[in-house]
Every structure is written in structure tokens, then in C-alpha cells.
Amino acid sequence: MKKQGLLILLLTVVISVLAGCSSSGSKDGKLVIGIDDKFAPMGFRDDNNEIVGFDIDYAKAAAEKMGREVTFQPIDWSAKESELNSGRIDMIWNGYTITDERKEKVLFTKPYLENSQVVVVLGDSSLVKLDDLAGKEVGLQSLSSAADALSASPIKDKVANVSEFPDNVLALTDLKTKRLDGVIIDEVVAKYYMSKEPNTYKLLDESLAPEQYGIGLKKGNEALLEELQKALDEMNSDGKAAEISTKWFGENKVLK
């Protein structure tokens, strides 16, 4: 009976280990990518409620080169690293800014896109430069690089109040209804909405901080990182990355 019990215990451990490997996405060919599905044009829902965007096409093309299936999982962006480290997603891939603080939590690919944090105001606003935000109401996405950029700027101590939102869409909605005077947001996102609603918004003359986007993977997943980076490098070489970038931005903005 003791031998039988030991055998059952060993089988249970083996099954648990195999299940853990399967959930990681690195063993069964499937990848679960965590996204903010309101982050146009990187990843968002179109009029048919389909998830689309530059990062969506970019990830699909990379997964195809890797011979893997890909699933996009909308997540609470403020809990993105927790989602990754828990194993519920395999990658954070949706305009994810590389920072020193985040490097301590996740593995990053090489940067693939340049960006900056800018301030969007209404088209008829009298605000022109960053100092004009003194005494004003400002909004941004919670636990985003916009918050980091504001914290690093002297203007933070001059604004009247900073409101945090689950996503940029809600922040821009409050701007349109004039509950906010400005929204700190990624430049690529700002320009997308400015193209969709001409004359509704404008940017302040000064930006807050330059930055770069990368793809985040769980610490210890170096093999998957190497596989992914190889696919991204191939996409740069064969023109696939340029094709996707031109579709969404009208030019090749992907870094080599």
C-alpha cells in the first residue's frame, strides 16, 4: 500500500508539472497576449467589436513565424505585470513602454517603436505649453507611463489635480465634456484620435518624455524571448514589419 501511495503521489506531481508547462504557453504552441483593448491604434475594438490594431497584426505575424497560435486577452492594464507573473498571459504586448522599473519585473524584447508622452487639450483651448497646465485639471490612464512622465516633470506640482482613469477613452471623454483641461497620453494614441476627430483636439507644443515600446515576458522565460526576438528580426529583414507599420501609420516606424 505504501508503494502504491507513493506512485500515486509521483503521478500527481508529474501531472501538475505538465499542466504548469501547458499554461505557460511556451510548450504547447499557444501564446496568450495581454492587451488594453481601448488603446487605439495599437490594440482596440473596431465597429464590429473585433480586436484590431498595429500590435495585433504585429503579434499575429510574429506568431506565424514562430509556428504558434495566438490569443489576445483584454486585461486590467493596472494589473498587467501581475497577470504576466501569474501565468494567465504569456506576454504584455500593446504599447508597453520600456522603463527601468519595469525591467526589474519583466523581460523585454528590443524596442520596436518610438513614442512620447504628450498633452492633449481641446482644439479651442487657450493652453499652448506645459506651464499653462498650472492650476488646471489633468487626466491620465492609471499606472501607465503617462503617470511616470508626469511624476518626472516639474509641472506635476503646479497642476490643480490629477484624475486617473482605467483607460484613455474615458479620460478623453472627460476632456470633451470639459471636466478636464488636458490629458497626458501616448503620442501615437493622441494622433489616432486627432485623425478621427479633426479640430476636436490639439497637442501642447512641448512633450513630457520620449520613450520606446517593447514586448514584456515573464522573468525566466529567456527561451521564449529569444524565439520571439528572432521572429521580430526576421520581420524587419523581409519587410513584413514595414508592411504592417505602413498600414497603420502610413510609414515604416518600426525600429531595427
TrEMBL record:
What cellular component terms from Gene Ontology apply here? membrane
Ionotropic glutamate receptor C-terminal domain mapped to chain residues: 30-251
Position of the signal peptide = 1-19
Is Signal given among the entry's keywords?
A: yes
Cross-referenced InterPro entries: Iontro_rcpt_C, Solute-binding_3/MltF_N
Q: GO molecular function terms here?
A: ligand-gated monoatomic ion channel activity
Coiled-coil stretches are 218-245
Q: Which residues form the Solute-binding protein family 3/N-terminal domain?
A: 30-252
Give the matching PROSITE patterns: PROKAR_LIPOPROTEIN
Q: Which SUPFAM superfamilies match?
A: Periplasmic binding protein-like II
- Protein's recorded name: Amino acid ABC transporter substrate-binding protein
